[in-house]
Amino acid sequence: MPQQWQSTADEVAFGSTFFQRMRQVEEEPDPVFPQGADWWQRLHTESFHTLARVVAMVQDELLPAGRERLADSPMVELAELYVSAAAPLLPHAERLLAAWNDADLPAPTAEKIAREAGRLNLPAEKAEARLRYENASRWEEETNPRDLWDDLRPAWAHLGAVRSTGS
Q1: Relative to the CA of 97, which of 7, 91, 124, 140 has its CA 20 to 30 Å away?
Q2: Number of CB atoms found within 10 A of residue 44's CB
Q3: Burial class (CB in 10 A: 0-12, 13-18, 19+), 134
Q4: How far apart are CA 33 and CA 26, in angstroms?
Q5: What is the pTM of this model?
Q6: Tell me: the pLDDT tens digits for 33-42?
Q7: Cβ-proximal residues to 90 (8 Å cutoff; 6+ apart), any chain
Q8: What distances in angstroms separate CA 99 from CA 11, 103, 131, 136, one per listed residue?
């Protein structure tokens, strides 16, 4: 019968830190990206940017400390597996962020903001935020063909499976 792995207190602490730090990075608001009307509405660009920041944090902070304290631990292997599962997505993240930084998205006019605010019975700030998100979302659709997102879906799914292994 195969021997079962029993995690040590240090491994549990490492795993907990991994997910806490990942959540912190994911939840840090990034004012560069307009937000959708609902909390779950995010631009693909923001999701890729967040992934790149999470991977950098794991590589630069967690893995060096984990390798030092837990050299042969399966928990360190899981963190390494997460980084390697994200690797196919990172070049796209870099390209997408560069395109975003070069983009000149039009700001909604005061007239459009007022019309949107009246149409949806929203404060002007929320109407403007909604219009900015819609402009950015349209930019993503025009800049990146739909089949690109479809091509990347298996890599995202694999990354999600690796991430759920440790939770």
Answers
A1: 124
A2: 19
A3: middle
A4: 13
A5: 0.85
A6: 998 877 778 8
A7: 51, 52, 55
A8: 40, 6, 20, 12
